Amino acid sequence: MFDFLIIGAGFAGSVLAERLATVGKKKVLIIDKRNHIAGNTFDYYNTDGILVHKYGPHIFHTNSRDVYDYVGQFTKWRPYEHHVLASVDGQLVPVPINQNTINKLYGLNLTGEQMVDFYKKRAEKTDVIKTSEDVVVNAVGRELYEKFFKGYTNKQWDLDPSELDASVTARVPTRTNKDDRYFTDTYQAMPLHGYTQLFTRMLEHPNIKIMLNTDYADIAGVIPYKSLIYTGPIDSYFDYCYGKLPYRSIDFKFETIDTEKFQSSGTINYPNSQPYTRITEFKYLTGQIHPKTTLVYEYPKAEGDPYYPIPQPENADVYKKYKLLASTIPNTYFTGRLGTYKYYNMDQVIAQSLTLFKKIMSEKNVNHLNGHVVPFAHTNGIG
């Protein structure tokens, strides 16, 4: 009898497993359909000995000291600030759009104050901002929107920015200063020895058992447990009874080149006619010294592993139905990007799990766990 069965060994599930085992003194079984822990942050050394991220680049950044300190229990940090360039008009210019971007793109020498006027003259103000197009055009005008956002967003989501919620492009701000960093969070770093080692340390508690290559549907009726934490797609858990929630997926193409360095920054975006959205060179992220280098090209697609919930009002309405249904199931918790159908950053998922842990412990202290055994739910799960 396990106190908790946790579906999914990414950050959402693993943080909860660690807290429940270490602080809550609970017996935890964590399972995953994949053959590895660490979810989408899983990294490994390829045949050339280069550390790569299997599911695309993951850069840790947060403004939360609590989140940074929590993760820091399981890894030493390598300070790292991510820089991204975009291929625009035959040039490589920094993104997010900033003073250096505009000056290089247009051959200008604007100051910070002049940048404010530059944006203001081009901005097309709208009273109500509803879409991703509205966000950008309202801030910097249509020309920069066309150059930097429209093509990239269309490739990433297979939708025009005018069809997407404002939250998508709001994630990438525009700046009037020369700050070329992609993120401005207080804490920016990479796990010194990679994410997989971080997760290995996080889950090495004796109260935690791990089963890989395991689907929830295959063990739910066999292994008894008192409470369930589900980090897979919420619609899958309920056999898509309200319809399938759409996601965008990505096809990752890796290439190793016999040269020490291939490109001039960690990531280069292609908001143009290239079929891929970006190329990332891992050695920038990891700091590894190696005579060769490995790149990953990202080709967005509709089918495949669910990575990005598609932020449209109709999808939010369907999710609300699933959320309401989920609230009726005792001792069952849905969390993470897939469990709550929301486009979270890593640190947000970690914070969500730390908060959920406190909520669970508060409930269990009141209910004394009651010995309740969750019945088998017919589901495909993520396992």
From TrEMBL:
GO terms for cellular component: cytosol. Residues 147-343 form the UDP-galactopyranose mutase C-terminal domain. Transmembrane segments: none annotated. InterPro entries: UDP-GALP_mutase, UDP-GalPyranose_mutase_C. Keywords: FAD, Flavoprotein, Isomerase. Its cofactor is FAD. The keyword Metal-binding does not apply. Coiled coil: none annotated. Its EC number is 5.4.99.9. One of its GO terms (molecular function) is UDP-galactopyranose mutase activity. Belongs to the UDP-galactopyranose/dTDP-fucopyranose mutase family. PANTHER family: UDP-GALACTOPYRANOSE MUTASE (PTHR21197:SF0). This is UDP-galactopyranose mutase. It comes from Panacibacter microcysteis.
